[in-house]
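Researcher: Here's the sequence for the chain we discussed earlier.
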Amino acid sequence: MEVIFRNVSFSYNDTPTGKLALDNVSVFLESNLIHGIIGPIGSGKSTMLELMNGITLPSKGEVLVGEYELTNKKSNFNFNDFRYDVGLVYQFPEKQFFCSTVGEEIAFSQKIFDPKNRNIKNKVKKVLKMVGLDETYIKRSPFELNGGEKRRVAIASVLISNPKLLILDEPTIGLDCNSKKRLMRLLKGLKTKYLKTIIIVTHDVDMLYEIVDDIVVLSDGKVIKTGNKIEVFNDIKLLDEKRVPVPNVVRTCNIIKDNFGIDLGYVENMNSLVRKITNVVNEQKKMVVVNNEK
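Model: Thanks. This is the structure I predict for it:
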């Protein structure tokens, strides 16, 4: 499910002098890719998220989410259908748990929107599998799970409606390293195996650099750069100027290139960087031995 912003502006104030949270934003987020939205605090990230989820409507312009057209005019579609196609996972979604078991928590939205559905139990099992949890979790209390498990249950509670578009707000916040890695594998699998379009709003640029395809950079309500993640994140001068964090591995690779003239190409994380540098050093040692033998 693609997302298109066409000349979108939004103000939280109705007065003409109100500061625009988004100012004439136009972007195209392609289907079946993972997209990242980044920018400093107050740049408009949360507003963009709310607009594509239909929580608010643009003051000007239009937001197209698949077949749904969201404008400040009266919408001519069923928002219940829209809610099935677009799933939103908030920051710390596990804080919104209130059911006594994982199964009840995941099934809750389906019981509200489709109370006559007799296939809910099978759906719960299916989405648990999608997020990497087995059926033994169904009877467990969601409050007794670890942070990573809670986050996956929260995502499962959104996936049960089988949305085409999944939007996540700071999904790795509060997670330890291992839980973060499992979540990243989950998101990659949702894209490749289940053909979901995923949009992530976060400050965790190191995580984004590993899993996303494209990046949108916001600053003061405007899009300052968008495109392939490698192209965007390597524009370090612009990102530093706009106070946008740069992935550690990108900054380190650029330092190596500037100081030693070695272009390591795309390296997804710091662990991969260490392995790549080790390989380069070993290759150079082999060349020295060969030259000495000559």
